[in-house]
Design brief:
Elements lengths: L1 H17 L9 E2 L11 E6 L5 E3 L2 E3 L5 H11 L4 E6 L5 H13 L5 E3 L2 E2 L4
Parallel strand pairs: 1-7, 2-5, 5-6
Antiparallel strand pairs: 2-3, 3-4
Helix pairs in contact: 2-3
């Protein structure tokens, strides 16, 4: 029993550290398809401050996102892009990120949302 309790505590402490990307408040939607975080995505986050991150690395200029992602796709060709836009971020900031991906000819982009829980 003690071993199980220790394993549970370790799991609870380590799980938040495993989450990829920068924490953002995702828009809430209903009826979205759940996709488990299997570690096979390149996480792009747009924060409310209009900063763009790939994983936990800040992209200095949002316009450079395309070249950063092209390099990542060269290293990991089987990975797709998972875009997390903060619900408080201006639409224009997310649109700049999408435009940079489009110009880099990246078309396998998944937009992240959170499901509205039905009571």
């Amino acid at each position: 029993m003690d071993v199980v309790l220790v394993l549970l505590i370790i799991f609870m402490v380590v799980t938040p550290l495993i989450a990829s990307g920068v924490a953002v408040d995702l828009p809430r939607t209903s009826h979205h398809a759940r996709k488990p975080d299997d570690g096979k995505d390149i996480i792009v986050s747009v924060t409310k401050e209009e900063k763009v991150y790939v994983g936990r690395n800040l992209v200095p200029r949002p316009e450079d996102l395309g070249s950063v992602l092209t390099a990542e796709k060269r290293r990991f060709p089987d990975k797709s892009i998972f875009l997390k836009g903060d619900t408080r971020a201006p639409y224009g900031a997310v649109r700049v990120a999408l435009q940079a991906m489009h110009e880099a000819k990246i078309d396998d982009v998944v937009l992240g949302t959170e499901e509205i829980m039905q009571e």
